[in-house]
Design a protein that fits this description.
alpha+beta, Alpha-Beta Plaits, four-stranded antiparallel beta sheet, 35% helix, globular
């Protein structure tokens, strides 16, 4: 299992609503992809400009395929990434 966690922080508070909408769509579509076991998006209650993406992929190949999927290259990369500071955290599950 591949655990991919990403912390995003909106560069400007005025973009939070748009980012929220885009990430919600991105998560719903990603969940339909082969090998996607979990794709959750969280928004911090203490800092509304901060989002956490928690992704579980069966294999690295599934995650790699996700990164070239239509919604990734047409929604996430061009519309979300320019609005955020992005910090990926590939992780290992401890418990």
């Amino acid at each position: 299992m591949i655990y991919n966690n990403i912390i995003l922080r909106a560069r400007r508070a005025k973009d939070v609503e748009e980012i929220t909408s885009l990430l919600t769509i991105h998560a719903k579509v990603s969940l339909t992809e082969e090998g996607c076991e979990r794709f959750e998006v969280y928004q911090s209650e203490t800092d509304p400009q901060t989002f956490i993406l928690m992704e579980w992929w069966d294999t690295q190949e599934d995650l790699d395929r996700h990164k070239v999927a239509k919604q990734f290259v047409e929604i996430y990369v061009p519309k979300v990434v320019p609005l955020v500071e992005r910090h990926p955290h590939p992780s290992k599950r401890l418990a």
